[in-house]
Model the fold of this input.
Amino acid sequence: MADLLAYLGLFVSALGAATILPMQSEAVLVGLLLTEKYSTFWLVATAGGGNVLGALLNWFLGRGIERFRTHRWFPIGPQALERAQHWYQRYGKWSLLASWLPIVGDPITVVAGVLREPLPMFLLLVTIAKVGRYLVLTAATTGLT
Done:
């Protein structure tokens, strides 16, 4: 049961970190890796899955942004959204490879929804970026570099 809770906690932190919420999942992943009690593969898969799902929520938010943009609770400020739109318009769908970056990464996934990036391409590029980040972090933590 404790193992399931550890994976669930990692999944939730990774999902939250991929949304506009101010959360970080890297510390949770590193902590679990350092215990050496859990499967490295399943830790990376869990964190990657949660993070990609969070980005997918951003994409759906972007699809409906015009309805929500003026609401007080809308989580993206106009400046962050403008920066992300500029980045996306300059680099196109390839900017999704930067979706792992702090500050601009999450708004880029929202902008991809706004600009109607096709879902299969969105998922492919975001998965490469997000899982890639966790793989690098895992390699650095476990000494696999």
